[in-house]
Amino acid sequence: MDTQHPSAPACAQPLNPRGITHINTPHTNRFTVVGNHLTQHRSLSLTAIGLAAHIQSLPDRARVDIKTLAARFPEGETRIAAALRELEAHGYLARVRERLPSGRIVTHTVSYNQPQPIEATPTPTPPPPPRDTTPPQPHRREPEPKPEDEAATAPSPSLKPPLPEPEAPDLDRHRTATALLATLHHHDPRLLLSERAVRRLAPAVGAWLERGAHPDAVRHTLAANLPREPLRNPPALLAHRLTDLLPPSAPTAPPPADRPAAPPPFHNCEGCERAIRTPRPGTYCRDCRNARLTTSAA
Questions:
Q1: How many Å apart are CA 45 and CA 86, to the nearest integer?
Q2: Alpha helix ranges (H) inside 129-251
Q3: Which residue among 8, 130, 165, 250 is the one 20 to 30 A from 240 at the CA level?
Q4: CA nearest 83: which of 156, 190, 180, 174?
C-alpha cells in the first residue's frame, strides 16, 4: 500500500474551469508598465485602451499623429481619431498647439500613464514678440473719430443662438434623447460624446421630439453628410445642426366640426312587425297608430 511509483505522472495544477488562467513570465527588457486603471477602464473603448498602451510604449519624440498611426495599424484614420479623442476626454492624452520662433504652429502630444484632470492639461506659452528694431517715428496726433465713425468701426459681438428647449418637460422624451445622443458613435465613431456633452444636447433633441420629429429622423440629421476630415469639435457641430435645422412646431388641430346626431336604431313595430326607427322598442309605426286611433274612435 505504501509503494511509490516514480513513473506515475505528477499531479497537474488545477485549472479554473470558469475563467482565465494567467501564466506570467517576468520581463527583463523591452517592457512597459501599464496601470489597470487604463487596461480595465469601463468608459474607454478597446481601441482606445490598446492605442494608449501602444503610445505609452513608444520612446520620446516618436510620431503619434493620425496618419502615422493609421499607417501602423489596420483600424483606419476615423477609428484612430475617435480613440485619440477618447483618451483626451479621460485625461490620458493632451495635444497642445505650440508656435515656433519661426511662426509655424505645431502640435505637441503629451501622454500620461496616470489620468490627469482635463483642466490640468498644459497650455502653450507664447514666445515673446520680436524686438522692434525700426527707428522711432515722430509722434503724430491722430484725429479724434466722429460719433458716426465710432459706430461704423465698433465690432459687433457675435452671439450664438441658444440651444432649443422643449416647451413642456417629459421624462420619457428626455430618456429617448439621451439614448439617441449616447449611441451616435454607432453610426460614426467620430460622434462619441462625453457625458457632459450628452447632458447639454439632450434638451435640444427633446425639443425636436416634442415637435413631432421621429428619433430616426433626428439621428439621420445629426449623423448624415459629415465632412471626411477628422471632426475637431463634434458637440459644437451637433449643437449647430440642432439649432439651425430645428423643424417648426406642429400646427394645432382644429376643433371637430359639429356633426348631425345619429339616427335612432331600428326596432320592430308592435302591430305589424315592420322595422321602424325609434329610440326605444315597444312602439307602433305610423300606419298602426292611425289604425288604432280609427278603431278607438269608432
A1: 8
A2: 147-153, 171-182, 195-210, 215-223, 234-244
A3: 250
A4: 190
Number of domains in the chain: 3
Q: pLDDT at residue 15 above 70?
A: no
CATH number of residue 44's parent domain: 1.10.10.10
Ranges of beta strands (E only) in the chain are: 93-99, 105-111, 266-268, 275-277
pLDDT of residue 139: 57
pTM of the full predicted structure? 0.37
**Quick check: is 73 in a domain?**
yes
| pLDDT over 90 at 182, yes or no | yes
Task: Return the exposure string of 30-51: e unless at least 16 CB atoms fall within 10 Å of the residue's CB, then b.
Answer: eeeeeeeebeebeebbebbbeb
pLDDT at 294: 79
Residue 135 lies in a domain: no
Provide the pLDDT confidence category of residue 204 given band limits of 50, 70 and 90. very high
3-state secondary structure (DSSP) of residue 50: helix
Q: Does some domain include residue 218?
A: yes
Does the structure show a pLDDT above 70 at 151?
Answer: no
CB-neighbour burial class of residue 180 (10 A; exposed 0-12, middle 13-18, buried 19+): buried
Which one has a higher pLDDT value, 105 or 12?
A: 105
Look up residue 19 and give its amino acid. G
In which domain, by residue range, is 213 found? 171-225+233-244
Same domain, 82 and 115: yes
Q: Which residues pair with 96 in a beta bridge?
A: 108
Give residues with Cβ within 8 angstroms of 111, minimum separation 6.
52, 55, 56, 64, 92, 93
H or E element, residue 117: none
pLDDT of residue 152 exceeding 50, the answer is: no
In a domain, 297, yes or no: no
276 and 213, same domain (yes or no): no
Same domain, 217 and 275: no
pLDDT given for residue 180 in this prediction: 93
Cell numbers of 122, please? 498644459
